[in-house]
Fold each of these.
Amino acid sequence: MAVSEQTLTSKQLETLSINTIRTLAIDAVQQANSGHPGAPMALAPVAYCLWQQFLRFDPEDPTWPNRDRFVLSNGHASMLLYAMLYLTGVRGTNPEYESRGEYAVTLDDIKRFRQLDSKTPGHPEYRLTAGVETTTGPLGQGIGNSVGMAIAGKWLAAHFNRPGFEIFDYSVYTFCGDGDLMEGVGSEAASLAGHLRLSNLCWIYDNNRITLDGPADASFTEDVGERFSAYGWNVLHVADANDLNALADAYGTFQKGSDEPTLIIVNSHIGYGSPHKHDTNEAHGEPLGEEEVRLTKRAYGWPEDAKFLVPDGVLEHFQQGIGRRGRAWREKWTTLFTEYVKKYPELAEQINQMQRRELPAGWDKGLPSFPTDAKGVATRDSSGKVLNAIAQNVPWMMGGSADLATSDRTRLKFEGAGDFQAGSYSGRNLHFGVREHAMGAAVNGMVLCKIRSYGGTFFNFNDYMKPSVRLAALMEIPSIFIYTHDSIGLGEDGPTHQPIEQLAQLRAVPELMLFRPGDANEVIEAWKIIMQLKHKPAVLVLTRQPVPTLDRSKYASASGVEKGAYILADAPGGNPEVILMGTGSEVSLCVTAYEQLAAEGLKARVVSMPCWALFEQQSEDYRKQVLPPSVKARVSVEAASTLGWDRYVGPAGKIIGMHRFGASAPIKDLLKKFGFTVEKVVEAARAAIGQSK
Ligand SMILES: Cc1ncc(C[n+]2csc(CCOP(=O)(O)OP(=O)(O)O)c2C)c(N)n1
Ligand SMILES: [Mg+2]
């Protein structure tokens, strides 16, 4: 099929290009013997029209800051995205976000779809494949992320644009399916986007009326358009996914602008062109099978035996379309930015630092100091002060809470911080409403657009947003999650609000940096580490109740937090009989027990362990220095599930923790009932010493 561009009409080239997207998806899924061909086949014209005519994206530079974002929320259609990345010639990037010569996805990568170490994994993965703006697959996350990307776009425009300098005006386009719109996170995110009037956001809904189990009406019969109208979205319809004119009209209407987010409902047939499989529930999560592949190719007018065929003229066609348009947009922007650098050097420098996830000089100036204080201060309060100090120095730090800002102390209170609301997009305090999951997804979306973003709620409600926290870790992006009310120590709200297993759960997430600081000075140190993370998300677990601010002239410096765990108080000569270890509010309990043991002539050491993940990264020497294997008498104290502590206390150790759900009562009664008292710790220490002898 050697056809040159000259011999084809533009209509034929269009069809050829669209069918190339389709057949690449079919062949890749067939070769992998795994994956979803149906959605890419149906959505090929929808993606083609968007990328070729509308998306402001330069394949030569997939990290250009003002590029339009394209999110494939129905991540099972990953081959659609890989085909677009290959056909449009998107370039690779390195971890410093600079584009390199090689291609993000080659034809060989497509042939290795879903294989070990390929750049074309089952679902699109940010960080692995350039041009993939976010990791999708768990349905609903991508649309949630896209709301954060649109929030970021609005904020970036409000903060950086100046008359004559539209440095930021990107749009966010998101493909989604029935599954995305059924997921709760999708509804939360859509509601928030409507409230915030994110006019730069466009979701394209693949209305194929089918999901994995069969016709969608088995479970999904609402009027989606009406629902989105009620959310405050502008709803457009395209009656046939193959109608390029209607698609162009819809995209054009979005680009002309409205003051609401846009939903384009596109009616489609899954597995378009395939003679049997569309409109059935079979095989849309499976390869077509050799015979079906042939028949489908025949229906497309495609050579039946050709595999991974990219007809002559197709790559050039994309170069003439998105390639040429994208380059023009980026060059225009680069010229504008060169002028901007001269006129607004400080703002330009901020943009450059953001792109590299660097911090501005003096980012840690003005941090509070916390003097020794036996009565102490809740770590949520010390954290709120530290956050406010740092955010004043980092202009692109913004975030908020899921309706608990007064409790979780995430509010930025300094002059000019402002609220982010429809029409006042320069504000830095976000009101996520009671929408934890959308908050998590939106924070990730903002972070993907280089905002230093955080979201706060009660620790227990991490359960409502855990999938987004997990994806931040998988993506290796520095999202920050601030969780207060971290144990039974929250008191009267009772077991519905008291986290038990959440620490164990999050400590099991790879790449996630979880800190449960023991006092106000550990809070400062934790924040310093968190701010310098570029490729890992952080969770900060904080108390509602006051904890003593330890005397750091008597005990070790809180800078030990950087090692994850450190010797806070030691036996004379560094030769303990027993090691007491804990985190958060239980650290001071260990310290008081230590003092009492010392008064009794027993030699104890206290190890504060705010971040297990960091401790595990230390040298074996250091870890053995902190927890010498010869000292078998060990006691851990943490008001949470005991799961995992056996790793540190060993077989002869004692674990003081929670073995059941908490209860509703004043804190002092709860601590007594569940054994978080000095007497119990001392008793356990004595028993451990006895047993280890
Ligand atoms: C949170 C989540 N639950 C379940 C799945 C498994 N899954 C993958 S595709 C799919 C069907 C989704 O239907 P739809 O969004 O309509 O996509 P289509 O099959 O029409 O392409 C399901 C349930 C998933 N990826 N994520
Ligand atoms: Mg569907």
Amino acid sequence: MKSLKENFQKAHIVIIGSGIIGKFNALELSELGFQITIIDPTQSQNSSNAALGLLMGNMYQKRRGRSWDLRKQSIELWPQWITFLQKFNSELNIEKPLIQLTTNEETFKKLKKFVYENNNQNLQILKKNSTYLKSINNAFQTKNIKGMISFKDGRINAKSLLKTLDKYLRYEKINFLKEEIINIRKSNNQWISTTKNNKKIKSDMIILCNSLKAIDLIDNLSHNIKLKPVLGQAIEVDVNDEEVDLLSLPKQFNINGTNIIPKSKNKLIIGSTDEYSIKPEENTFKTLTNFLDKQPSWLMHATISKKWYGIRSRPDGEPSPIMKNLGDGLIICTGFYKNGILLAPACSQWVTNEIKNYLS
Ligand SMILES: Cc1cc2nc3c(=O)[nH]c(=O)nc-3n(C[C@H](O)[C@H](O)[C@H](O)COP(=O)(O)OP(=O)(O)OC[C@H]3O[C@@H](n4cnc5c(N)ncnc54)[C@H](O)[C@@H]3O)c2cc1C
């Protein structure tokens, strides 16, 4: 411990799980000079690859408590990280603004009150004659969609972000092991992570970023941590109507809780479902397109061109996410449910501070 104190940057940290949270922690810690090993058997099925990448921070209506603090921090930190990561991918960006819409009068009243009470230039109620609202009402053939706009929120393309982080990690020559960890234990002041192939990896600290599987590696009875799976599906649809131009719509918006991202003149991404299961339900098209009482005919007749899902982990009995120092150099940072992309920078900052405190 003393030698670590003298030169904590030489400490070796194992990160289990390589979704957005594992990768982001690796980025921040490696920038500080720590030796990092990330371990993950497969990234193709993780929830991060399924994410739509919406960053709903500033429009979050509960303005106090931990969830708000994390959102606020992330919204402040994201632009700095984007500037940093643009060295590895100049196209990486946060597409702003983000629009939240409703057809429900009560919900709209609450939005108005929220915007009024916050008196913030970055949050505004959309005026009836706004071009955003006009294009949405026109495309969805309604008159009653209303809502607010947040100029500080937006969307980051999650796949592009993950690829950029991979590029950074390769550039920095961060160790990556394609293995599954089946056991962790502490022996002689060192952590030992054992893989399914019986490899033993020694480290000074471990960060658990492996979602639902994190609890298999800890004594969850003594830590009393429970996570449950929440499956989320998203679809890309082709609109077969020459008169519709989806590019006339805002870049990203949410109507009555459903996220919508126009991709081209006739392609739309819609997501995501909230299924308390690990098996995807079948009627995804209906679930994801019934966000209005009456759908426009172009949406009713649209066809699915892509469909995907991810399994998110949600803490059971406590708020999301789980960010705990379990002591002795073991940290758990998982259970991000719907907001892992948004919260990655704030959570990795928290982990970094915990590590600095532990090693100093
Ligand atoms: C359809 C959909 C849309 C979403 N949209 C958004 C959005 O718009 N905005 C937003 O902020 N969030 C969104 N999310 C949520 C977001 O994707 C998650 O919160 C986030 O990806 C969680 O990241 P993670 O790194 O904790 O977990 P994951 O990405 O699931 O990664 C966990 C990793 O751990 C690995 N692992 C598991 N067990 C082991 C083991 N024993 N050893 C080694 N490795 C292991 C897995 O292989 C996996 O790669 C969405 C999710 C879905 C499904």
